[in-house]
């Protein structure tokens, strides 16, 4: 009953406001539009009609003529509204020379017009519109919102919203959308009085590449065939339209990428290519081809599955997943079988050798343990006999009571004063950024320990602007312990300052309830550029050693300020457009990184201890160097679980020497992985890494398996 009464109250208030009488005003028929209604019997009929056309006011003249207007009073007040309304003798409806004006209840402008949506990228749409034809004042901003109504992902997609300032704006690019998804786009115009009704349009985003398929597993090899087991794939960015099986000559590095298409055998042979498509089939037929025989001589999907011969006898096999809508086509390539097959053999051999070594070590330790126990009892018996002989001489001392040496192992915590005015302290050390100089994207990049992380731009006094990473921290919502921890993380960035090879702290911005921590944001991430090189993207392999040297220089710079980088990997290294590296992830910056499983980069002594130290960063640097030289390969890709990686490292297993890595460079990498932290190279030594000679990278032998690296 309470809810019904409230709704009735709202209705009465609206009705009263909608028919509020504004007064009688002079009017010139030349200034009025064509009557909306030639016959309006009562004021309510006229106001309702004008409200439906988004006008703020309704004007009545001569008892029945209804005009819809957005402003009035230019000619001044009048006392000539003496004609009663045709069917409402209680209200006046103007006269021949004056108009009675009523409010319609409309506040905001009419909806934007002529919405057009075009596809820009797989995760972006370009939206244009025309301004409202009835602004009812000045339009101050537009709100564009995209709601997913049909998608190929299993995740729940949140709405994406953007606010565009200025009434003259008529376009925007809405980013952060899900590829291969149908969106309902709404645009609302707002003036100082309120918002308009939304205008709508519907559009799909472009499809994206399917998820990378699993590597086919070799079951057996024949004289001219290879039998493999295929694994069904899926895609979050579009439909799965077809599968292809490809054959690649051993030793060849074929092109891969979402737009790369392999030819059939005949055309590939004529063009001198060492790779071709041998079969294509629909997803509905996957169960028929799950156990696939390469080279059986059949026609499959218009491709001749030619028997393997000549230099293709020991060929590698891969699986391609195709996503297609209309003329849009995206492909995703698996790793090739040969590398994985050899790796499994090597892993088996290595496991057998490890087992034999463990048996020998256990036997030796058992013998030493037995000898130690025997020696302990012999020495204990001799000590008891000696003590019995010396007892009279020590009688006087024993009367005084036993004396114990106490070792003071108490921990005295650092004196960290509670910073009551911590923001004032920060202002003395860093740039206090004005709020109007900071533009924050609505899309959430990460959710950190202290708040959300966004991208954005910061504008400087000289007119320049740059892309930044912004940590949004609701300071008032933090517990005392979290606030102190946040300040310590922030102090790390403040102490580090700025350096050529370090993505440093830009400044902070403070509002009444929020602290914005602004960090440099390089335009590229090293890991992504390495993986892009696998698909034909550009990467200067001749600059690998200079890039690595610059990273070591950044680590040395942090070490000079007693800072240990605990998240070192290719994902924590940014790249500028000129390939200059920028180390990211120190201090509070670690919460902007991807959620990586760092076990594969962790030093042997750090597996069972929380405290990190500089030699541990040296170990991680060696793994990072291997990651770069393998063009983004996954360390220990033959081991699935983190516990298996720990066990293998504890047993002395290290990352293998890559095909194109010279011995001196691999010796540097191996020295970073020595068991004794004191025997590892120093950062000063690693900074001279670019004095070594690097060979061209001719083959990519290590797979990239994202599920082993990311949580």
From TrEMBL:
Gene Ontology CC: one annotated term: receptor complex
Fibronectin type-III domain mapped to chain residues: 111-210
PROSITE patterns: FN3, PROTEIN_KINASE_DOM, WSC
CDD domains tied to this protein: FN3
Its membrane topology: Single-pass type I membrane protein
Cellular localization per UniProt: Membrane
Main subcellular location of this protein, as a coarse class: membrane
Keywords, sorted A to Z: Glycoprotein, Kinase, Membrane, Signal, Transferase, Transmembrane, Transmembrane helix
GO BP term, pick one: cell surface receptor protein tyrosine kinase signaling pathway
Stretches assigned to the Protein kinase domain: 439-705
Domain WSC positions: 18-105
Gene3D superfamilies: Immunoglobulins (2.60.40.10), Phosphorylase Kinase, domain 1 (3.30.200.20), Transferase(Phosphotransferase) domain 1 (1.10.510.10)
Signal sequence coordinates: 1-18
Top-level lineage group: Eukaryota
Residue ranges of the TM segments: 355-379
A molecular function GO annotation: ATP binding
Keyword Plastid attached: no
PANTHER family named among the record's database cross-references: TYROSINE-PROTEIN KINASE RECEPTOR, TYROSINE-PROTEIN KINASE TRANSMEMBRANE RECEPTOR ROR
Protein name, as recorded: Putative tyrosine-protein kinase Wsck
């Amino acid at each position: 009953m309470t809810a019904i009464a409230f709704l009735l109250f709202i209705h009465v208030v609206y009705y009263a406001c909608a028919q509020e009488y504004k007064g009688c005003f002079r009017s010139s028929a030349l200034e009025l539009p064509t009557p909306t209604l030639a016959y309006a019997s009562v004021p309510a009929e006229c106001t309702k009609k004008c409200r439906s056309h988004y006008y703020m006011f309704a004007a009545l003249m001569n008892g029945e003529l209804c005009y819809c207007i957005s402003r009035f009073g230019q000619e001044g007040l009048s006392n000539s509204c003496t004609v009663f309304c045709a069917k409402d003798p209680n209200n006046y409806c103007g006269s021949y020379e004056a108009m009675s004006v009523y409010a319609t209840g409309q506040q905001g402008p009419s909806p934007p017009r002529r919405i057009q949506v075009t596809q820009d990228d797989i995760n972006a749409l370009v939206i244009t519109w025309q301004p409202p034809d009835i602004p009812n004042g000045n339009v101050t901003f537009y709100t564009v919102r995209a709601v997913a109504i049909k998608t190929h992902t299993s995740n729940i997609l949140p709405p994406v919203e953007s606010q565009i300032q200025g009434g003259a704006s008529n376009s925007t690019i809405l980013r952060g959308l899900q590829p291969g998804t149908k969106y309902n786009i709404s645009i609302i115009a707002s003036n100082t009085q309120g918002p308009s009704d939304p205008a709508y349009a519907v559009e799909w985003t472009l499809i994206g590449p399917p998820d990378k398929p699993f590597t086919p597993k070799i079951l057996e090899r024949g004289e001219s065939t290879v039998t493999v087991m295929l694994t069904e794939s899926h895609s979050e960015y579009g439909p799965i339209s077809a599968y292809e099986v490809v054959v690649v000559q051993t030793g060849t590095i074929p092109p891969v990428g979402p737009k790369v298409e392999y030819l059939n055998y005949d055309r590939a042979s004529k063009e001198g290519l060492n790779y071709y498509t041998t079969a294509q089939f629909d997803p509905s037929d996957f169960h028929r081809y799950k156990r696939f025989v390469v080279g059986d001589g059949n026609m499959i999907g218009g491709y001749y599955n030619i028997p393997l011969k000549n230099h293709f006898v020991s060929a590698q096999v891969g699986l391609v997943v195709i996503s297609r809508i209309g003329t849009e086509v995206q492909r995703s390539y698996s790793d090739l079988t040969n590398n994985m097959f050899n790796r499994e053999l090597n892993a088996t051999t290595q496991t057998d050798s490890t087992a034999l070594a463990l048996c020998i070590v256990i036997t030796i330790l058992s013998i030493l343990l037995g000898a130690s126990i025997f020696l302990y009892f012999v020495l204990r018996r001799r000590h008891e006999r000696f003590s019995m002989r010396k007892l009279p001489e020590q009688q006087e001392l024993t009367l005084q009571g036993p004396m114990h040496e106490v070792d003071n192992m108490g921990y005295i915590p650092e004196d960290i004063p509670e910073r009551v005015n911590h923001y004032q302290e920060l202002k003395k050390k860093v740039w206090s950024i004005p709020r109007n100089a900071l533009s924050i994207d609505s899309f959430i990049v990460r959710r950190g320990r202290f708040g959300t992380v966004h991208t954005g731009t910061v504008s400087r006094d000289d007119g320049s602007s740059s892309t930044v990473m912004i940590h949004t921290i609701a300071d008032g919502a933090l517990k005392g312990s979290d606030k102190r921890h946040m300040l310590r993380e922030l102090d790390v960035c403040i102490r580090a300052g700025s350096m050529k090879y370090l993505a440093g702290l830009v400044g902070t911005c403070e509002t009444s309830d929020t602290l914005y921590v602004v960090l440099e944001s390089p335009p590229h991430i090293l890991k992504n550029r390495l993986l892009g090189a696998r698909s034909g993207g550009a990467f200067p392999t001749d600059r690998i050693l200079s890039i690595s040297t610059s990273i070591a220089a950044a680590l040395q710079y942090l070490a000079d300020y007693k800072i240990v980088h605990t998240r070192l990997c290719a994902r924590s290294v940014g790249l500028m457009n000129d390939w200059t590296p920028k180390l990211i992830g120190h201090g509070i910056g670690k919460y902007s990184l991807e959620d990586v499983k760092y076990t594969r980069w962790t030093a042997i002594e750090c597996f069972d201890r929380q405290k990190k130290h500089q030699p541990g960063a040296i170990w991680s640097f060696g793994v990072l160097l291997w990651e770069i030289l393998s063009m983004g390969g996954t360390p220990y890709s033959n081991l699935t679980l983190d516990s298996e990686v720990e066990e293998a490292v504890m047993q002395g297993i290290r990352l293998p020497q890559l095909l194109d890595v010279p011995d001196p460079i691999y010796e540097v990498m191996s020295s970073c992985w020595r068991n004794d932290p004191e025997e590892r190279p120093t950062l000063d030594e690693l900074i001279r890494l670019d004095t070594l000679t690097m060979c061209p990278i001719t083959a990519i032998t290590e797979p990239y398996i994202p599920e082993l690296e990311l949580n």
